[in-house]
Specification:
mainly alpha; Growth Hormone, Chain: A; 2 domains; 18 helices; 81% helix; 0% strand
């Protein structure tokens, strides 16, 4: 079958949208370029998370009323523009504004890209290949990150420009990559006949409805809380791997290779999902994939050295990514078709709110000691892995 032009353009868009060159040096940027402590850094991230929730409604209206293509074009301009602010004016109160703008741009992109891709698939009569096309779209996005992360850290550690200047320039380069992604969207043909006015319920309202629905359903309550809370706790390793390695005198030049490495090994691990479902079983896999990250957090708080750091980083991130599709599948099995979007939005809201609440607490603990922060995260993760353990009868 002839490859559809629009699908190819969206693949390229996905690659450059995810070409986040700053990704593996964001912590050094906040600490050494912006001069913030961890509390300040995580307050900024909490602002971003709150912004993501607040902007769900207006940005959804833009996509519904004016079209996915317009939403994506505006999103790339706003999202990309926010990184120029990071690169040129790394001052705390200005960065708060930048995070709000970044959240606005992200919500314009979130969902609209997949909706447009789905419409393109339908129009090209390739519905039978939709799963494969969607997976390739995600793969191009992952490829963008795998290439961008090492490039960013190599540049920062290269000495071509001063260390602090390089930390700002990687954000500017990221902005340019995102703006470039918007150029490819310009050439995508959108069928406006499939666009409807904003009569559908908002994402925020879906989240609130789903939140209450999840707690009323015994099995979904177990799956949803397990998914949201463990994901929220293990998410912090995506921030702390940089701090942990730098603490152990690991060169900043190679941080990007570590980020690409744990993303790549997680992709490989996901291919063995059928093995984990059969041999240890879903119940044991879900329990161990929450317990082991907690134990690794605790061990890394007591045992110094790069070797322990690598075990903790790869263990926490890989188990987090392994368990998410399993829980997604279990949740979908127990959700009626008419409530699917509602419930999944509710669970996503629980995760986002949990992370937002943890940001300042974890930041303050890390300013005292990274080891204390890891110890607290580890103890909470271990406790929740036991309290939220999925039992055999829940799987039926």
């Amino acid at each position: 079958m002839r490859i559809n032009k629009n699908i190819v353009l969206l693949y390229i868009f996905s690659f450059f949208k995810n070409f986040l060159i700053f990704g593996a040096v964001s912590v050094p940027f906040y600490l050494h370029k912006a001069g913030l402590d961890y509390k300040g850094m995580f307050i900024l991230e909490a602002v971003f998370s709150i912004g993501m929730v607040v902007f769900e409604i207006p940005t959804g209206i833009i996509a519904d009323k004016f079209g996915r293509k317009i939403s994506l074009l505006l999103g790339t301009l706003v999202f990309g523009g926010s990184f120029f602010i990071f690169g040129f004016v790394p001052v705390f109160h200005i960065l708060i504004v930048a995070q709000i703008i970044c959240a606005l741009g992200m919500t314009m992109l979130s969902g609209a890209d997949r909706a447009l891709l789905y419409e393109v698939i339908q129009k090209s009569k390739a519905s039978d290949k939709s799963g494969r096309i969607m997976a390739r779209y995600d793969a191009f996005g992952t490829a963008g990150m795998l290439v961008a992360f090492p490039l960013g850290s190599l540049f920062v550690g290269s000495g071509i420009v001063s260390y602090t200047d390089a930390l700002g320039l990687v954000f500017i380069a990221t902005a340019l990559a995102i703006l470039l992604s918007g150029v490819f969207i310009l050439f995508v043909t959108e069928d406006r006949g499939g666009i409807h006015s904003n009569t559908s319920i908002s994402s925020l309202q879906l989240g609130i409805n789903g939140f209450f629905y999840t707690f009323k359903h015994p099995k979904l309550r177990v799956f949803g809380l397990n998914y949201a809370l463990i994901s929220s706790l293990t998410f912090f390793m995506f921030w702390f791997y940089q701090a942990l390695l730098l603490k152990n005198h690991f060169p900043v030049t190679f941080l990007g290779f570590v980020a690409s490495g744990f993303n790549f090994t997680a992709m490989i691990l996901l291919f063995f999902t059928p093995f984990f479902e059969k041999k240890p079983g879903i119940k044991n896999t879900l329990f161990l994939s929450s317990l082991i990250p907690g134990v690794l957090y605790i061990l890394s708080s007591f045992i110094p050295g790069v070797f322990m750091a690598f075990i903790a980083i790869f263990g926490v991130t890989n188990f987090r990514m392994l368990r998410m599709p399993m829980l997604n599948s279990l949740m979908n099995k127990h959700i009626e078709d008419g409530n699917r979007a509602t419930v999944l939005s509710g669970i996503s809201m629980i995760e986002r709110l949990s992370t937002t609440l943890l940001y300042p607490i974890v930041g303050m603990l890390t300013d005292i000691s990274l080891s204390i922060s890891f110890l607290v995260l580890g103890i909470i993760t271990v406790i929740l892995s036991v309290l939220l353990r999925v039992e055999e009868e829940t799987l039926v």
